[in-house]
Amino acid sequence: MTDITEEIERENKIINDLLSLVKLDKTEAKPVIQHISINHTIELIMKRLRPIAQKRNIELVYESIRQVTADIDEVKFTLAISNLVENAIKYNIENGWVHVSLNADHKYFYVKVTDSGIGIPAEYQDQIFERFYRVDKARSRETGGTGLGLAIARNIVELHGGKVTVKSEENKFTEFTVKLQK
Ligand code: ATP
Ligand code: MG
C-alpha cells in the first residue's frame, strides 16, 4: 500500500510539474504582478521547507541582508525559489547545510541558495536547466524527481526578466543565484 501511495504521489508531482511548465508556456503565464516583500515571501518558503531539512539533519539558514520589495508574481516566485531550496536539501550530504541569502543593490535583488552538497560537475552545469535532465541517473532515481524543477525555476525567473546562474564544485558546494529587477 505504501508503495502504491508513494507511486501515486510521484506521478502526481510529475503531472503538476508538467502542468506548471505548460502553463508557463501559454498565455496563462501572464504574471500576476504585485508589490510584495521578498523577505517575507522567502521566510514563508523557509518555514515550509524546514521540516524536510530537519528530516535529513540539514541546517537551513536564511540571511536577510537587505529589506527588499519588488513587483513580482508571488506564486511563481515561490515555486522557483522552493525548487532551488528543495534541490539544495535533496542533493546534500547528511548533516550538511543550506544557506539562503537575500541582498540588493540600487536596481536588482539577488537570492542565493548555497549548499554543502555533492556538487555538479562543470560539464553538466548548463544541461541541468533542460527539461528532464538529471545528473547521475542511478543516484537521482533514489532521490526521486523528474528533472523539471530547474526548467520551471529558470522559466519563471526569465518570465520576470531575470537570470538564474549556477556555480559549483564537486563534493564541495553548489550555489544558485537568482537576479531580478526590483
Ligand atoms: P524535480 O525537481 O523535478 O523533482 P530534479 O531535482 O532531478 O527533479 P531539477 O531540479 O531540474 O530536477 O535538477 C536537475 C538535476 O540537477 C538534478 O537531478 C541533479 O542531478 C542536479 N542538481 C540540481 N540542483 C542541485 C544541487 N543543489 N546540487 C547538486 N546537484 C543538483
Ligand atoms: Mg529538483
Describe this structure in words.
By secondary structure, this protein is an alpha+beta fold. It has helices at residues 2-25, 38-55, 74-90, 137-143, 149-159; strands spanning 34-37, 59-64, 69-72, 97-104, 108-115, 163-169, 173-181. The strands form two sheets. Strands 2-4-5-7-6 form a five-stranded mixed sheet. The mean pLDDT is 91. It binds adenosine-5'-triphosphate and magnesium ion. The site of magnesium ion has 5 residues, from helix 3.
Strand content: 25-35%
Note the overall shape.
globular
**What is the H/E order?**
HEHEEHEEHHEE
Low-confidence stretches: none
- Topology, number of strands: 7
Individual helix count: 5
Average of the residue pLDDT scores = 91
Strand order of the largest sheet: 2-4-5-7-6
The distinct ligands, each listed once, are: adenosine-5'-triphosphate, magnesium ion
Which structural class do the helices and strands define?
Answer: alpha+beta
Structure at a glance:
The protein contains 5 helices and 7 strands.
Core attributes:
alpha+beta, binds adenosine-5'-triphosphate, 5 helices, binds magnesium ion, 182 residues, two-stranded antiparallel ribbon, single chain, 7 strands, 5-stranded mixed sheet, globular
Layout: helices, strands, pairs:
Blueprint: H1 2-25, E1 34-37, H2 38-55, E2 59-64, E3 69-72, H3 74-90, E4 97-104, E5 108-115, H4 137-143, H5 149-159, E6 163-169, E7 173-181
Parallel strand pairs: 2-4
Antiparallel strand pairs: 1-3, 4-5, 5-7, 6-7
Adenosine-5'-triphosphate is lined by residues 17, 83, 87-88, 91, 115, 117-120, 128, 133-135, 140, 145-151, 174.
